[in-house]
Structures are given as structure tokens and as C-alpha cells.
Amino acid sequence: MSFPARHLSAPDLAQRLALVRDSSQALVDGLNPEDCALQSMPDASPAKWHLAHTTWFFETFVLERFAPNYAPFRTGFRDFYNSYYHAVGEQFPRAQRGLISRPVLAEVFAYRSHVDAAMQLLLGAETLPEDCLALVELGLNHEQQHQELILTDLLHLLSLNPFHPAYRAGACSASPPAPPLGWSRFEASIVDIGHDGIGFAFDNEMPRHRQFVEAYEIADRPVTNAEYLAFVGDGGYQRPELWLSEGWQVAQAQGWSAPIYWRRQEGGWQEFTLRGLQPLDPSRSVSNVSHYEADAYARWASARLPTEFEWEHAADSGARGILPGAVWEWTSSAYAPYPGFRTAPGAVGEYNGKFMANQYVLRGGSCATPASHIRPTYRNFFPSYARWQFSGIRLARDGSIR
Amino acid sequence: MSFPARHLSAPDLAQRLALVRDSSQALVDGLNPEDCALQSMPDASPAKWHLAHTTWFFETFVLERFAPNYAPFRTGFRDFYNSYYHAVGEQFPRAQRGLISRPVLAEVFAYRSHVDAAMQLLLGAETLPEDCLALVELGLNHEQQHQELILTDLLHLLSLNPFHPAYRAGACSASPPAPPLGWSRFEASIVDIGHDGIGFAFDNEMPRHRQFVEAYEIADRPVTNAEYLAFVGDGGYQRPELWLSEGWQVAQAQGWSAPIYWRRQEGGWQEFTLRGLQPLDPSRSVSNVSHYEADAYARWASARLPTEFEWEHAADSGARGILPGAVWEWTSSAYAPYPGFRTAPGAVGEYNGKFMANQYVLRGGSCATPASHIRPTYRNFFPSYARWQFSGIRLARDGSIR
Amino acid sequence: MSFPARHLSAPDLAQRLALVRDSSQALVDGLNPEDCALQSMPDASPAKWHLAHTTWFFETFVLERFAPNYAPFRTGFRDFYNSYYHAVGEQFPRAQRGLISRPVLAEVFAYRSHVDAAMQLLLGAETLPEDCLALVELGLNHEQQHQELILTDLLHLLSLNPFHPAYRAGACSASPPAPPLGWSRFEASIVDIGHDGIGFAFDNEMPRHRQFVEAYEIADRPVTNAEYLAFVGDGGYQRPELWLSEGWQVAQAQGWSAPIYWRRQEGGWQEFTLRGLQPLDPSRSVSNVSHYEADAYARWASARLPTEFEWEHAADSGARGILPGAVWEWTSSAYAPYPGFRTAPGAVGEYNGKFMANQYVLRGGSCATPASHIRPTYRNFFPSYARWQFSGIRLARDGSIR
Amino acid sequence: MSFPARHLSAPDLAQRLALVRDSSQALVDGLNPEDCALQSMPDASPAKWHLAHTTWFFETFVLERFAPNYAPFRTGFRDFYNSYYHAVGEQFPRAQRGLISRPVLAEVFAYRSHVDAAMQLLLGAETLPEDCLALVELGLNHEQQHQELILTDLLHLLSLNPFHPAYRAGACSASPPAPPLGWSRFEASIVDIGHDGIGFAFDNEMPRHRQFVEAYEIADRPVTNAEYLAFVGDGGYQRPELWLSEGWQVAQAQGWSAPIYWRRQEGGWQEFTLRGLQPLDPSRSVSNVSHYEADAYARWASARLPTEFEWEHAADSGARGILPGAVWEWTSSAYAPYPGFRTAPGAVGEYNGKFMANQYVLRGGSCATPASHIRPTYRNFFPSYARWQFSGIRLARDGSIR
């Protein structure tokens, strides 16, 4: 395992497990079974699937291996809830996750209880091997990642509904007014990048290594809706010179004219949010933009996106307004292994490494990100076209241009 | 209206309305909200949608026009549950019916109750115009058509589930053993085709008119699973000379090797049914085959499909074993207007006529068809590739070949 | 063979062969090798392919079987130029016919000469079996069908060229002014349909049989550009109530707003023709419309398309202005086998029969049709969406409406 | 212009122009017009198009602006041969370049002569502005890039031909036997990356800047066919654990089982080359592999691809066997702007920068690359799936693992 060297103890993990598992389930409180069963597009998954797949993770990677008397909840789940681990076996086709009515939501809840009980039993045992503890901690962080996906996928699903239903009243509610934009400046230097191994981190955050970073400036807050609206108003979506060639093609083919959840209405711009359709809040960070849009906006603003190394260095240096924001922030860095990167042995080696192609790194965290996940070294990643994440824009510029 | 000249009375309609509406709802008794919300493919619709759309039909075509004080249940439903009536307004995209979690099933039930009450109020009124009564009767027959679709669409949905869930224990249960195949022979003659206008019929069954039919023979029962299995075993799906060119292309592109719900397993062939996965019943009529497969089978059997005129003439003549069967029976007739066909004025004119292209007529009725729909003149129609209907095969052959 | 009972003699066939083969080659006189090599869409083929495939037909079906000492021009051609005959062997993928630069045009000419010489040698032999003569005659008619396709496919190819190149100065030049529209009326009767077997006919024109035809009227000339322009001007492409549902979907998805070769320009409508871009001729028959458009126009004009039986009966009866026209005329009849239809044994049995699904019959002939092909019983057929053929509209209406 | 500060003189450019233009035309000597007109896929272009587009480049960017009396060869060419420059105007759809038979090849030759004469006239003028000279030099380098594409695109076209035609006897002929694999080792350091501005370079090679590179080793020759064959034989294409997730999906969807031009035949492996079908040469560098395949091979070989910085540093350091090879070498670096990158003003600013998304950098050069293009700083780039370039594999590994 390239995961943390020193782990939480079994009792600590047992306590965190209860908390994390409860908070997942709390996300669907008040939803209907239908809300949790539908899949709005192949990139998204039903909430019910997220709740089951995170359970499957514990069952497959922890209980199967370390709890010899464990009886699987239902044998067919092994393939059915396998997301993408070839080493585990077959996978049910991703695009068809929303075509499965049964198990119904209540049965998924029962599955969760079954596995939770077995996990608590296991963690109460006298001694557990190191890699078991590491896998439990990985499972917790994995589930927290899916907590955010539950929200982003629900938002996308509800956004297709002509009746504009709200997910929940206060969800990801409005941020305080944005201050005027300021910049932090850093001189060229060799910087240390990546996680130091103290506490949990994903394998893709390691190993810690050196990068040379030229002088740069980085904005002290993300781009706001008001600023992005100026871009839209200035013909931002009609001017190919502002766009990457591939971005322009995608935007034309799909008819983009604003961020995915913006709605132009008679009384002005609205935004579809987890709280339903709301007037566009000018002071809030623009959210749910693709890498293509972020890049075009930056070009229009005579700036650029930061590299992930600039971003991490600024965060490490305590630069003003870097951690945390309300949106993930696209960087200009393609998602790639750090020098010396090694995948973990076994199936969990498939966790991150095999996705290091044609995706871009996002840094920071969003209103939907569990707070414990927000750290300077965390590397989120999505394809350039992805718009259904809470992804925004932080500007940077070369230090030499001042 | 080209619909019936003499209608049921308002009290009769009120009684039938209650029965038909209840039987629709009974079809989803015991199902979960998830079962009713999912859409397995663009050609199918969620059960919840069928329940709402049939309600919309009464609301839009009857209550809006004839019940002046009627308050719509929810304004947005007018577009949302419009299937394909351009004259009514916009339509929600068909392929996205399964992306809508709300209204939830319980709200659709409330919608049904709301409209049912208004309909009963209307039908209790002293006098109602003729075309109002005609539209109510059309609405009842419309809803009965959707009752069958609820079952065919649920079967398709459940068939994708790796856990093989059953819809209901006794649904469309096995038929009695098939007798040996016999033939009825008819000489060449001018025959009368189409509905005579006494009692309800759809516009596409009219006007009654003449056709010349050459001498023919028609089988006295549909093709059985045992017979179709012989076709499969004889390489039926590997021999292009048996197939229409287009059918061969579709079959190759989609990897057909047996009817859609057949499953080859270690212990022999199984069939996925509304009762779950069952051993293939050799004496049961082969079901859920496309027009392409029906045509290929007939060629393999040195026979052909009947024309819809031959079929109707045989049924009218009381030929043995024509009415009713357990499956719809593909004919060789393309779906086309009868000579002198006129569509009804207004939106209901879109009911049948505009689909008269590139579809083939099926005659008879299936185990899922309401009994009152089974009549010699009824014209069902689906595209050549359709396999998710309870569609089977009846053979015919030229009279001159004996 | 269901082909003609009494054939041309070998010397007559030899003479016709020379004429037909020369006229094919004359169609590409003055063209460049590039013109003959490109394929504009999967439905069309390069002219070079047509010239080679028609040659392959003689080589495969006649020389291989009846000329024992014949040496194939090049062995690989047997699969390469096989269009769709499974009984002959593999087929090169149709959509890739335009990806093959070699054999170059000159080599195809050499192939033609090689086969022509062998054919003349064969036809000079003392005695030839009946089915050999029948296959030669079929091959001649087959080649004549491809002569028309050479022109329709070239027109489509050149229509994509922004420089509007003409095929040839006088090709399919303008027709004389259209007379005012008149109608011929026929009473209900049993009519004889299909070819009587005297002289050549394709298998799909047989057997001759009876149909009952209700009273009808049929127009004495095809619809003109001026008439069709009125339909366009009246919003014909924006009114769903005029269209078949499937036609409306296709028209919307592909953005149809006029016939495929019409171009709206500043000075008025132009039409791209084999003679290049020309002002739209109001008196000329509208051409290159799909079945969907023909059907919509007829509905707009309070008429309908004739059935193929009405058309043939009118032509047989010598009705005014039926034979020949400048365009093929869409009928409302789906392409289906006649009662008692039998395919020929062997590979040529694949010639027509296997395409009898989801296509519509056209009758008559066009400016590009060899004159000897124009006869009352000839059945041309294309899918509803096809627009690259010289296909137009003749109106009909029920006799009872007068 | 971010292009070179000190240019070749006008007379030198005139001389080079003649040479470069002649060598382009020499590439199609002996080909048929059909060979030059076809487009085998949207990513490739007809040879005729390359010959015209490179001419258009001079006409549009040089003659239009600096030769006031220049008369365009044909006005429509401005849009027709515009590849992707939005600032110039409309572009003819890329995927349809192979649907245009005219202008024929001879007319393209005439176009070339017309522009060549005007260019020579211009370059003979007394004084020319600096940016004119820079654009001429860019045009020459641009044309040289297309020379390689002419060959790669022809190879792909001919590879689809069932008759395996050769492009030319000696083209890209076999390389000498590969020596045993050795490695060069470099310690961690800050390295200078990018072009120093002396002599020509593309804008994407600048500005020169610093990168930190950890200790690494790099192979002294590319991977051979024999080595790659061992990967194939070891189930390389059947083992998902060796592949990036996206690469595995592409490989499965497209049925990859070996490099695109390898053919498994009875007598052993063959490779389709510009010289026709040849026995696979075990000592030759494996070529025409995608980034996905290169990455999977490296993982199988317990190594990795080099970063583009490692590669350039090794080349700059004179490491053994880096420059030149017979194949372009995939690096692990996503194509991205260098720190401080600026695009040139005007339309040529679209030359490189807008493609910096979801592509990977290749370094070195191939047997088809003009020798003057091979320099340590040159950055070629293609998407991960691209297989029709002469792209191979050079291995690297972390310095710390020894």
C-alpha cells in the first residue's frame, strides 16, 4: 500500500466508520426512492448505487479478506456493485446503473446495515494487520468521495426536471459577498509538492517530490458569477479565439451559451441549484463550468489557470484565500503520476493510477466536499468537458508580466 | 370523429371508466416506486408515465373542453405528459421519460384520483354532446392499450436486471399444450375488410372496404417454442439466405441468436417472463420475436406470413384457432391507410394516421391484451425490429401450392 | 429462374451487350478519375465501382459458370465487387467503396474489355443453355439499372462541391412547359397487376395477379417545381400536421427546408443539377424529394399518393400523361412480394426479394432511366428518406370524393 | 510573432522555397489522381488537399498581405483550403475533404505553380518587412510538416485496400539491426527546456525556461518489433492491468490486438508499410502505436515513458542514441504551454496554441520527417488514440530504482 504509514487505531476507525456511514445515509434523508434510483447520464450514478457501491468496497476489500466468517449479503452484488476493478472480476455496465429497479432503496439500506455490523465486529477484534487498517481508512475516504458525487449527481438529475424540484432547503447555500480581487505573488523557486505521508492521503498525492516553479501570481478568490456574466455578455461563447480548439468544437456541438445550470429567463438569469431554481447570485463563485470554459474565461481575462504546482505551493505558503473555497478549482495541469509514483498492490492499485490520461487536475474542494478532505495536496480530476461537478475558476498569471 | 357512430351512454361510460381506471392501477399493485419510474429504452416508458399519460388524455381531450370549471391538477403536466400530439403543444422528449423522479408515484396516483373525480362529475351531467362521449370512449380504449404497454415495458425493464426479478406470480402464465398444426383453406375472392362502425373501433380500422384475396391457407395455431427452437437449432440465425437483407443486418449488428428473452443456460433454454426466469415451455407460442425473425422463420418453414387481409378474412370466417391467441401475430402487411381513410379533426387525428410508415401490422391479441380489444378488425403495428412486444408468428401459404 | 420464358437469341444478346456496355462507359466520358473514385455517402457508390460491379455480374454469374476456359481478370475481384450476394461469398463493406484508390479507373476499363471479349466469345458459341441466355439478359438489365445510379450518385457527389461543377452540358435538360393539371377517373374494379412474362421483366414484377381497386382519380402529370414551391412558401416544412410522424422527425433532425438540391439565393431559388447550378425551372417536375416529402405535399394538396396498383392500372389503361415522365413517382405502396412470388434459385434469387421491407415503390422512370426500362409493371423501390434519386410526385384521390 | 528573431534572408528563403516546394510535389510522383483524392478517415486528408493547403498558407498569410498586386488563383480557395484558422474565415468541414473531386490534381499543380511564381517574385523584391520573412519561413516549415502527413495519410489509405498496394519501393526502408538495449543515467537537476531562438522554431517550443527533473534513466534506442512482439505474445492486449482505463476501453471497443499495420498471417506476422506488405522486421523500431499502447508496453516492461523534459535534456546532453530515430517517440507529457508562452498575433496565433488540450507530446522524428526538422526542442503532438503516425516507444525509468 502506498497509503499512509501510520494509521488510525481500530477503535478510532470504528468510530469514524459510524460517522461517515451515517453521513452518507443522511444525504438521502427526505428523498424518494425514485430520486435515488435514476441515472441522468453515463457519467453520473444513482444515489442508491453510490450507497451500495461504497458498502461493496468494505465488503470486498476488507471483509472478504480479513473476516473469515463473513457471509456476503447477497452473492450477486460482487459483480453488480463493482465499479471498475478488473482484478475483482466482471463489472456491470456503468451506463446501465439506472436501469435496475431492484434491489430497491430499502434493500440497499439493509445491505449497508449488514456490512456496518460486520465491520464493527471486525474492528472490535483484538489485533488487525496493518493493511486491514489501511484499507478501512481508504474505504472511509472513498465513501466520502462518493458523498460529494451523490450531491453532484442528484443536482444533475434534478436539473433535467421541468418542475425544478429542490434537493433540500439549505444545501450549499449562498456564500458571503466576494471581496475585490487581489493577487499573491511568488518568486521562482524549487518547491516541494505532494503529501508527506503523515495522516491519510491518496496514492496519487505521493511521493513528495520537487518541482521548479517560475515566478507567478495567483488570485485570492475564485471568479464570481458577476465576473463570469461579463464574459458571457462580451460574447465569450461566440468568439473562437478565446477557446481551445477542442473546447470550441464541444461547445458548438452541444450548444453551450452559459454554465450548465444557468437559465436565462425573462426577469434575468437564474441558476438551478440544490435549493431549486434561484436568482443568479453575482457574488457567489461561478460553479459547474468545464475546463474548456475555465480556460476560455481566463484567456478573456488576460490571465491563465494556475498549474497544480503553483496552486499547492500557494496553499502551502498560506497565500490569502486559497483554502477552502466553495468550488473545486481547475488547474492547467493534466492529471499525471508524480515522479516515482507507484500503485498499490492488488485491486486497490486500480484506485487512481489507471485514470491518469486526458483528465485535468482540480484543487481545493467545494461546498459539497467533506471538510476533512480539504488539504493542499488533494488532487481531484475530471475530463475537460465535465460540467456537472462543483468546479470553478481561480486565475493566475506569470510573475514576469508585472 | 371517425370513431363510432353510436356510443355508449354517459352512465355506461361512467361505469366502464371506473373499471378501466382501476384495472390500470391494479397492474402496479405490489410494485416498488423504482419499478414504476425507470425507462429501459427510448421505445419503452416508465409505468408511472403510462399511468399519468392516460390520465392526461382525459384531462386534455375531455375535461379541458367539456368541463368548463375544471381546474388542472398541475399546469405543467399539459406538456409533460403529452406523448406526441403536436396540436396540443410541446412534448417532453420521449427518451427522457425515465430521467424524471418527480412527480413521484404517489403524486401520479393523486393525479389519477383528481381526474377520475372530475370525469365522474362530468359524466353525471344531464346532457353531453356526442363528440364528448366519443372522446371518453376513445380515452378508455386508449388507456387499455397502455395497460398492455405497462406490462411489455416492465418485462423489458426487469429483463435487464441480473437478479431476474419476477413481476408477479401468475402473470401471463403457461398456455395449454398446442395441438398438431392444421391449416384452413380459402378460395380466391373479394372480401370485406375493416370495421362496420357498430361498436367501438379505432379510426385505422375504417372504412370498411373491399380487397381481392387470392386462394390461401392459414395455420390454425401460432408457432410454438418447440418449433422455433428447431429453427434456432438448424442455424436459423446464421443463414443469411433465410432473412430479409435489412433483418440480417440488424440481427448481426445486435448479435441476435434467439428471441430476446431466451437465455441459453447449462440445463437448457430458459425464458425470462413476467413470472421471472422459467424453463422454456415447448408448447407455448413463441413470443417476443421481431418481424424480421417471424419472416425468417416462415421462410425456413417453407411458408410465409399472412397478409392482414387474409388474417381478417379467416377470422371473420370463423376459421379454426384464429381468435384469441396468446400472442400478437405479425402479418406481411405494411401499416397503411385503408382506401378512403380519414383522420379525425383536431388533435386526436394524430392518434393513428401519422404512424402509417415503415411499420407492420399485427393482428389478434396477447395474454396482456384486454379481452374487449380482441376483434377481427383490430390493427396493431410496430416497426420490424420491435421485439419487446408479445408478438408471435402464424404461418400462411399460397392456396395454389397444394 | 422466374425471369422471362422466351429470351433473346444469343446473337441478339451479343449485339445488345455491346450497346449497353458502351453506353455505360459513355456516361463517364469527359470525367476525371477523381470524379469516378469518390463516394459521397454510404447509399451511393463511386462511378468506378458501378462500372466494375456490373462487369463482375457477368463474370460471376455467366462466365464462371458457362465459359469453362475463362480466366478471371483478377482473383480478388470476386469478393471486392460483390455488392450483396451472400451466396457468392464475402462482400467488401459498402460504406468503404470510396476508400479504394486502386484499381484505378484505367484498370477498371481494362477489366471491362476483358470481360466483354469473353462474353462475345461465349455468345458466339453454337448452343447455349436457356438459363445462360436468361442470365445475360438479366445482366444487361442490371447494368442499365446501374447506369441510372451512376448519374444519381454523381449528382449527389457534385452537389457537395462548393464550386458547383456540372456533370455535362445537356444532361437531363429542361422539360417543356407543364400543362394545367387534369385528372383521369377510374371506377372500382378487379384489375390485373404484374408482368405477363412476354419480354424481359424482373422477378419482383411477377406473377401477374388480381387486385381490387376502389374508384380513384389520378393526375395527368407530376407535380411541378412551381406547385411545390407554393407548398414550401406555405410553411410546408414547418407544419407537423402535414407530415408522417417519422418523416417529421427525420426532417427536423436533418434540417430539411426544401428539396435536397434546391438552394435559396439572393436572386431567387436555384437548383443544383447535372448541368450545374441552374435557376429553378417552375414548369419542370419537382425532383429528388423523399417519400416523406411527397406524402406531406400530397396531404397539403388535399390529395394522396397513388397506390402502385392504381398507377399500373392507369398506365395499362392508357390514361393521359402517365408514361413516361421525367421523374420516378412515389406510390403509397410498401414494397412487398406479389401473391405467389418466388425468388430465382441460386445467388440471383437475392436480386430483389430480400429487400422487400421498409421501402416504398416508385413507378415510371426518370430522365436518367434507359428508355427500354420504362414499362407499366416496373417496380423501383427506395427507403422513405431517400432524396438522391430522381423521384417526384404524382397525385391521386379517392373516386368517391367528387 | 514569437517566431525567430533573426531570419533567413530573402534570397536564402527563395532558394529554400524552391527546394521545399519541389520535394512536396515529388512525394506524389508516380501516384494516380485517385490516390491523391481519397480521405481514409476524418483525421487524415487527401494528398491533393495537403498540396493545396500548404499553397494556400503562402497565398493567405504572405501574398495577400505583402504582394499588393497579387491575384488569387481562384477566389473560393480562401475558405476551401483553410484548415482551422477562424481568424481567416470559414473552413470547409474537415471530414469532407475527401468528397471533393474537383479541383482535380492537375489543377492543384497549377495552383502551386501560380503561387510559387508569385512568391519568387515577392522574394526578389528589394526590401521585405521582417514579419513577411518570418511568415515565409513559417510557411516552409509548415509545408514540411505536411510532407510527413502526406506519407502517413497515404499509408493509412493504402492499408485499407485489400490488394495491399505499395506506395513506393524504397520508402522508409528497413533500419539496421538494433543493438542490445542500454541506458543513460542522469542525476536530478534543474534543466533548461525550450528553444533559444537562434534559428527557426515553432512558437510551442518557446520560451526557454527551467524545469526540475528528478534522477532518471533513458533507453539508448526505441523498442523494437521483436520486443513488442513479446508483449503481444504475453497477452499484452488481453490484460487490463497493463493499460490505462481509457486505453483499455478504446482497445476493447475497436478490437485492437496488435499495432494497426500488423497482420497475422499463416506464415507469421506481416506489416503493411509504404513498401507494401512486408514480413515483420524484428530489428526495426515498432511503429504506428498509440500512446495507450506505448504506455501499456512500458508498464509491461517495468519501465515508463520519459517526460518530454527528460527526453529533451537527454538529447541536449548528447545521450547515446537519442537523435534521430526512425520513429517519433511518445512521452508521458501532456501537450501544454511552456511557462510564459505567448501566441503570435493574428491568424497564425492559431497555429499551435489552441491544440494544447488532451494530446500528448512526441519527440524526435521519423523516417518521414524532413531532416531539418529534427532537433531536441521540437514538440510533436497527437491524441492518445492516434495510431496512424510513425510513432514508437522509448523507455525511461526512475533513477532511484537502481
Briefly summarize what is shown:
With 402 residues, chain A is an alpha+beta fold.
Commentary on this structure:
The structure is a homotetramer of 402-residue chains. Chain A has helices spanning 10-26, 33-37, 47-66, 77-80, 105-123, 130-159, 225-233, 245-254, 291-300, 308-316; strands at 183-186, 189-193, 209-213, 216-219, 262-265, 268-273, 276-279, 328-334, 360-364, 380-382, 391-392, 396-398. The first copy, chain A, is of the alpha+beta class and 402 residues long. The first copy, chain A, has a four-stranded mixed β-sheet with strand order 10-9-8-11. The first copy, chain A, has a three-stranded antiparallel β-sheet with strand order 1-4-12, with helices on one face. Chain A has a three-stranded antiparallel β-sheet with strand order 5-6-7, with no helix packed on it. In chain A, β5 and β6 form a beta hairpin. In chain A, α3 (47-66) runs antiparallel to α6 (130-159). The longest helix of chain A has 30 residues, at 130-159. The model of chain A has no long low-confidence stretch (mean pLDDT 95). Chains in contact: A-B, A-D, B-C, C-D. At the A-D interface, β3, α8, α9 and β8 of A face β3, α8, α9 and β8 of D.
Topology (SSEs and partners):
Four copies of one chain form a homotetramer.
Chain A lengths: L9 H17 L6 H5 L9 H20 L10 H4 L24 H19 L6 H30 L23 E4 L2 E5 L15 E5 L2 E4 L5 H9 L11 H10 L7 E4 L2 E6 L2 E4 L11 H10 L7 H9 L11 E7 L25 E5 L15 E3 L8 E2 L3 E3 L4
Parallel strand pairs in A: 8-11
Antiparallel strand pairs in A: 1-4, 2-3, 4-12, 5-6, 6-7, 8-9, 9-10
Helix pairs in contact in A: 1-5, 1-6, 3-5, 3-6
